[in-house]
C-alpha cells in the first residue's frame, strides 16, 4: 500500500511554523518598549528535579499545571487533563483510559510518576490499561517535555509527567487545619463525583493528611454512531443511512466508570531532617466499548485495514461486554537530612512499594489477570555550591514482578531489575545558565519462558538559557539518550485483543538511542507572555510495531521491530493580557503544535517470524518497509481561548482545531480533523485567608462534534464523548 505525499516537506513546514512565531515575538518586543518593567511571573516550584527551582528558570522544557488552571482542566484521566498543553495530547482507548502523549511519543517512552516515583502500573503494556493516578487529587502536575532519563530512567526517553498530591508534605502548612472539597454532577454521562482533602498540623512539626474520592458515571453520550460504518469514507462525514442497524447511536455502550481513591499520610519535620509516609489505594472499574474486544475464534479481520470493521456481534453476546476491574495499593516514603556532610546540603530518599492488579471481566467472568508488584527507590545527594556549581548525584534502584494469566496474556510473566547512577550540575555565567547531566543504567528482564536479557543505557544532556534582555531569552538543548526495550517489545507472542491484532516480539532487540536538538524563545512583558520551540530527535534502532499484512486466526499480525527514525516538531504558546477595566480583565491564549515522525530508511527488509497456534507455531516470511511515516502520530493542532476575571468571577471559552492526519504508515487509514469547543464559568466568595466557596459550570465539546483521535486504536469504534455539561461546588479552607 502506498501512502499519500504532502506538498510541503517537514523542514518547510517547520520553517513556516517558525515564521509564524516571529510576528508574536516582534509584538512582544514592541510592547516591551511601552512597558519598561517586565511582569512578575508566577513562580511555581518544580518538584521533579533534585535542585528544585521554578519552571521558568529551568533550561529543560517544563510545563506546570496548578491553581485555577488545573481546576478548570481536570478530567477523569491524566492524559485528558494535560492535553491542553502545547506538545501534549492524550492516547484514548475509551472513556476510562487516557495516557499522556508528549511530542508524538507515548507508552514506554513517557514515564508517569506519582510524587517523583514511577506509577508501577501496567499502563504501558496495553493501550486499554489505565494509568493508576487520580488527577482530581493532584496539587499540581509537572510535564517534562523531552528526555527525562537522567532522573527517571530509560522509560522517560520521551518525557515524564509527575503528579504532585501532597500526601507527604513538603513543608509545615501555615494553618493548623486546611483542605478542600468538591461535589460535581454532569449530564452526558450522568456523573456524580465527590472528593475531599484535609491537612492538619499536630504540635509544631507533625503534618497529617487524608484524602478521598468517589466517581460514578453512566455510559457516555456521543454524537452519531459508535462504530464507523463499513462503507464510510474517513475523509467525510458519516452517512447514517448506511449504518449497521446494530450499531449503537447516541450512547457509547459499556463506557461507564466507577472509581474510588484515597490516602492517609504523615510527615515529621525536625531540626536535622524530615520523614514522611503515605498509604494510598486506587480502584477503578471501567468498560471497554463494545467492539474493542473480539476473540480469536470470532475472526473477522481478513483484510489489510488498520482496524476491524467486520466484528461479529454474536461474539459479544456470547462472551459479554468487557470491563476492567483495577486495584492498586501503594506505600510511599520520603525523607531527607539537612547538611549531613560538610560538602552536602541535603540527602534525600524517595521510595515506594506498589501492589497492582487488574482483572478483565467478560460479563461477570474473570478472563485475564494482570499483576505488577514493584519497589522503586531513589537516593539524591544535593551538593553545596562549589565554585559556582550547584548539583546533585544519586542512585536509583527498581524491582518489578509482572504477571499475566488468562486467554489474553500475550506477554509472559517477567521480573525486571533496574540500577541507575546519575548526576546533574548547573551554573550561571552572567546572562547564561548552563545545565548538564549524565546517567548510566543497567536493566535486566528475566521472563518465565525465555532467556533473560541485560541492557546498558547511558544518557548525556546539556541545556542552556541565554538571557538576551529583561524580556527575551533563548533556550538550547542537546542530549543523547538511550532506552532499553520492554518486556512486551521483546517477548510478546500471541493475540492482543485490545489492539485487535497478534503481536510478536523480538528477543534480539537492542537498546535504542535518540539524539535531540532543540532551540526555544521565551518573551515576557506586562502585556505578553510568549514561548516557542523547534526540535528534532534522530533515533537509532527506534522500536515500533509494524503491520506485516498477514492475518492469522482472523487478526492482523504485527511485529515489534527496529529502524532509524526522525521526529521533528514545533510548538508555541502566547498569552496576551488584552484589557484591564472595571468590566474585568481579559486575557487571550493561543497555542499550536506539530510533530512529524518518519523512518529514515528506504526499500524493504525480509523478516522471518513464528506465530503461536495452539501447541505449535506457523512460520512466515514477509517484507517490511524501511521508510515512511510512523503509525498513530498525533496530528497538528491550533487553539485559542479567552479568559475573563472580575472579583470572584472567572470565565473562559476556547476551541482547539485538530487537523486531518494523512501522514500515515503503511496499512494505516488517515483520520479526519475536528474542532472541540469548551467553556466554563466559576464564582468564588470568601476571604483569601479563610474559607472560600466556589460554584462552577464547565462545558466540554459544546458543539457536540464527532471526534475520533488519530492516536486512539479504538477510534473507529468509540468517538470522544459528545456535549457534556458539569457543575458543582468547591470549598477551600
> Which regions contain 5 or more consecutive residues with pLDDT less than 50?
1-41, 234-243, 295-318
End-to-end span in angstroms? 61 Å
Approximate helicity band: under 10%
- Using only C-alpha atoms, the radius of gyration works out to 25 Å
Structural class: mainly beta
Oligomerization status of the protein chains: single chain
* Strands, count: 34
Largest sheet: 22 strands, antiparallel, barrel
Based on CA inertia axes, which overall geometry fits? globular
Percent in strands: over 45%
Mean pLDDT over the residues: 87
Q: What's the total helix number?
A: 6
Question: Short summary of the structure?
Answer:
With 733 residues, the chain is mainly beta. The protein has helices at 10-34, 67-73, 78-82, 149-152, 313-319, 487-491, and strands at residues 62-66, 88-92, 98-102, 110-114, 117-118, 140-145, 159-164, 177-186, 191-202, 206-217, 221-225, 249-251, 257-269, 273-288, 322-341, 344-362, 365-383, 390-406, 414-429, 432-447, 453-467, 472-483, 493-496, 501-504, 512-524, 528-552, 555-581, 584-613, 616-629, 637-646, 649-658, 674-686, 692-700, 724-732. It has a 22-stranded antiparallel beta barrel. Strands 1-6-7-4-5 form a five-stranded mixed sheet. A two-stranded antiparallel sheet has the order 2-3.
Amino acid at each position: 500500500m502506498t501512502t499519500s505525499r504532502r506538498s510541503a516537506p517537514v523542514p518547510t513546514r517547520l520553517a513556516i511554523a517558525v515564521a509564524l512565531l516571529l510576528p508574536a515575538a516582534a509584538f512582544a518586543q514592541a510592547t516591551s518598549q511601552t512597558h519598561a518593567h517586565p511582569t512578575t511571573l508566577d513562580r511555581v516550584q518544580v518538584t521533579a528535579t533534585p535542585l528544585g527551582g521554578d519552571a521558568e528558570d529551568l533550561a529543560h522544557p517544563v510545563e506546570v499545571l496548578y491553581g485555577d488552571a488545573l481546576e478548570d482542566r481536570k478530567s477523569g484521566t491524566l492524559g485528558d487533563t494535560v492535553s491542553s498543553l502545547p506538545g501534549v495530547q492524550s492516547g484514548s482507548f475509551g472513556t476510562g483510559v487516557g495516557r499522556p502523549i508528549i511530542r508524538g511519543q507515548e507508552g514506554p517512552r513517557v514515564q508517569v510518576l506519582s510524587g517523583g516515583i514511577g506509577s508501577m502500573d501496567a499502563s504501558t503494556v496495553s493501550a486499554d490499561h489505565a494509568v493508576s493516578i487520580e488527577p482530581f487529587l493532584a496539587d499540581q502536575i509537572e510535564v517534562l517535555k523531552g528526555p527525562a532519563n537522567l532522573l527517571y530512567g530509560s522509560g522517560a526517553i520521551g518525557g515524564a509527567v509527575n503528579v504532585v498530591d501532597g500526601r507527604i508534605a513538603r513543608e509545615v502548612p501555615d494553618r493548623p487545619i486546611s483542605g478542600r472539597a468538591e461535589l460535581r454532577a454532569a449530564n452526558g454521562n450522568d456523573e456524580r463525583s465527590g472528593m475531599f482533602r484535609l491537612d492538619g498540623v499536630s504540635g509544631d512539626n507533625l503534618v497529617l493528611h487524608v484524602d478521598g474520592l468517589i466517581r460514578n458515571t453512566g455510559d457516555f453520550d456521543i454524537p452519531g454512531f459508535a462504530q464507523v460504518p463499513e462503507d464510510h469514507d474517513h475523509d467525510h462525514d458519516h452517512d447514517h443511512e448506511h449504518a449497521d442497524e446494530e450499531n449503537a447511536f447516541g450512547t457509547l455502550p459499556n463506557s461507564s466508570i466507577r472509581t474510588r481513591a484515597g490516602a492517609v499520610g504523615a510527615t515529621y519535620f525536625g531540626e536535622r531532617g524530615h520523614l514522611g509516609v503515605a498509604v494510598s489505594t486506587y480502584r477503578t472499574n471501567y468498560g471497554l466499548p463494545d467492539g474493542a474486544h473480539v476473540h480469536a475464534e470470532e475472526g473477522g479481520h481478513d483484510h489489510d485495514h488498520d482496524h476491524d470493521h467486520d466484528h461479529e456481534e454474536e461474539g459479544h453476546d456470547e462472551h459479554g461486554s468487557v470491563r476492567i476491574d483495577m486495584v492498586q495499593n501503594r506505600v510511599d516514603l520520603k525523607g531527607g537530612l539537612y547538611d549531613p556532610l560538610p560538602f552536602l546540603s541535603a540527602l534525600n530518599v524517595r521510595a515506594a512499594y506498589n501492589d497492582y492488579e487488574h482483572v478483565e471481566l467478560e460479563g461477570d467472568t474473570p478472563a485475564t489477570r494482570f499483576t505488577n508488584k514493584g519497589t522503586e527507590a531513589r537516593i539524591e545527594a544535593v551538593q553545596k555550591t562549589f565554585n559556582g556549581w550547584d548539583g546533585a548525584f544519586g542512585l536509583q534502584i527498581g524491582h518489578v514482578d509482572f504477571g499475566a494469566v488468562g486467554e489474553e496474556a500475550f506477554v509472559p510473566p517477567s521480573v525486571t531489575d533496574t540500577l541507575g547512577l546519575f548526576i546533574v550540575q548547573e551554573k550561571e555565567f552572567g546572562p547564561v545558565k548552563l545545565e548538564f547531566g549524565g546517567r548510566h543504567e543497567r536493566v535486566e528482564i528475566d521472563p518465565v519462558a525465555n532467556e533473560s536479557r541485560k541492557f546498558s543505557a547511558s544518557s548525556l544532556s546539556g541545556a542552556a538559557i541565554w538571557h538576551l534582555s529583561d524580556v527575551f531569552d533563548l533556550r538550547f538543548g542537546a542530549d543523547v539518550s538511550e532506552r532499553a526495550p520492554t518486556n512486551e517489545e521483546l517477548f510478546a507472542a500471541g493475540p492482543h485483543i485490545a489492539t485487535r491484532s497478534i503481536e510478536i516480539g523480538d528477543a534480539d532487540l537492542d537498546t535504542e538511542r535518540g539524539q535531540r536538538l532543540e532551540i526555544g524563545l521565551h518573551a515576557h512583558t506586562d502585556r505578553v507572555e510568549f514561548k516557542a520551540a523547534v526540535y528534532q530527535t534522530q533515533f537509532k534502532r527506534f522500536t515500533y510495531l509494524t503491520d506485516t499484512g498477514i492475518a492469522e486466526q482472523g487478526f492482523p499480525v504485527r511485529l515489534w521491530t527496529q529502524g532509524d527514525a526522525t521526529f521533528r516538531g514545533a510548538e508555541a504558546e502566547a498569552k496576551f493580557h488584552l484589557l484591564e477595566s472595571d468590566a474585568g480583565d481579559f486575557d487571550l491564549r493561543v497555542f499550536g503544535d506539530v510533530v512529524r515522525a518518519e523512518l529514515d530508511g528506504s526499500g524493504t527488509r525480509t523478516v522471518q517470524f513464528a506465530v503461536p497456534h495452539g501447541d505449535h507455531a506457523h512460520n512466515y516470511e514477509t517484507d517490511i518497509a524501511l521508510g515512511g511515516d510512523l503509525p498513530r502520530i498525533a496530528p497538528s493542532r491550533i487553539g485559542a481561548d479567552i479568559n475573563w476575571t472580575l472579583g470572584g468571577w472567572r470565565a473562559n471559552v476556547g476551541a482547539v482545531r485538530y487537523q486531518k492526519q494523512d501522514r500515515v504508515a503503511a496499512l494505516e487509514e488517515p483520520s479526519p480533523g475536528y474542532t472541540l469547543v469548551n467553556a466554563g464559568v466559576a464564582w468564588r466568595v470568601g476571604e483569601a485567608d479563610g474559607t472560600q466557596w466556589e460554584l462552577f459550570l464547565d462545558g466540554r465539546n459544546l458543539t457536540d462534534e464527532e471526534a475520533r483521535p488519530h492516536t486512539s486504536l479504538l477510534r473507529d469504534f468509540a468517538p470522544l464523548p459528545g456535549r457534556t455539561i458539569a457543575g458543582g461546588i468547591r470549598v477551600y479552607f
